[in-house]
Amino acid sequence: MIKILNTGVSDQTISKSRFVAVAQYCDYENDAISFLRNQAKEHKTATHLAYAYRILTEDGIAQRFSDAGEPSGTAGKPILQLIEGRDLINLCVCVIRYYGGINLGTGGLSRAYGGTAKAAIENAQTGPYVKMAEIAFEVDYKMFDGFIRDVLLLKGTILNKSFNNRITVTVLLPEIELPNLISKYN
Predict the structure, then answer these.
(1) Please, what's the b/e burial string for 141-169 (b: 16 or more CB within 10 A of its CB; e: otherwise)?
(2) Is 40 within 8 Å of 32 (Cβ atoms)?
(3) What is the pLDDT of residue 185?
(4) pTM to 2 decimals?
(5) Dihedral, 114, 118, 120, 122 alpha carbons, nearest 10
(6) What is the per-residue pLDDT across 107-154, written as a single tens digit (0 to 9) for each?
(7) Beta pairing partners, 174
(8) At what angle do helices 144-153 and 178-185 cross, to 10 degrees?
(9) Mean pLDDT in the chain?
(10) Which of 128, 147, 162 is the last residue of a domain?
């Protein structure tokens, strides 16, 4: 699976209609919904706001799309097919259309929405998706420096530290690296 590392934007005019696409990384469905609401507020005068998202959840992959009033399957579906075809995850792409007075037909709409979404994704950097895990460890003071070094080497992040008789450290690290750290510090 692949994720985008930054927001991608595309803006193009096709037969007098303006199409603006924004590709945004989203960890949760609520993030995608919030992103779409913000785009709707920003583009209040737009005719259509079609979207698709694909999010990895604890129950599997959640994916949704909307044609936003365009003929069925001509707006949101091409965006979702693009996301699926590139094996992108935790991504929401919206394409905003400002109608220019010329009907594009179903094929033209599919190409316009899909092409604008594709350009937005291509304008974002991508990288491999790595599933992360959050876990707390109790570490002796004498092992603390080595523990921190190991977490950082495994591309982890220190989220919280609590100092008592032992140090409780909450870390976020790639799930695949979790057994290595557990075997060394538990």
Answers:
(1) eeeeeebbebbeeeebeeeeeeeeeebeb
(2) no
(3) 79
(4) 0.78
(5) 180
(6) 999 999 999 999 999 999 999 898 888 899 999 999 999 999 999 998
(7) 132
(8) 170
(9) 93
(10) 128
Note down the domain range covering 137.
132-185
> Which CATH number do you get for residue 69?
3.30.230.30
Residue 117 and residue 107 in contact, taking contact as beta carbons nearer than 8 Å = no
CA distance 83 to 24: 12
- Clarify whether residues 99 and 153 are in a common domain: no
Task: Using alpha carbons, select from 103, 153, 155 the residue that is nearest to residue 132.
Answer: 155
* Residue reference for tokens 């876990």: 135
For residue range 12-70, list pLDDT tens digits in order: 999 999 999 999 999 899 999 999 999 999 999 999 999 999 999 888 999 999 999 99
Nearest to 47 by CA among 67, 64, 29, 22: 67
Q: Are residues 106 and 174 in the same domain?
A: no
Instruction: Check residue 182 and give its pLDDT.
Output: 87
Residue whose pair of structure tokens reads 């693009």 in the numeric block: 82
Model pLDDT, residue 132: 85
- In sequence order, the 6+-apart residues with CB closer than 8 A to the CB of 118 are 10, 82
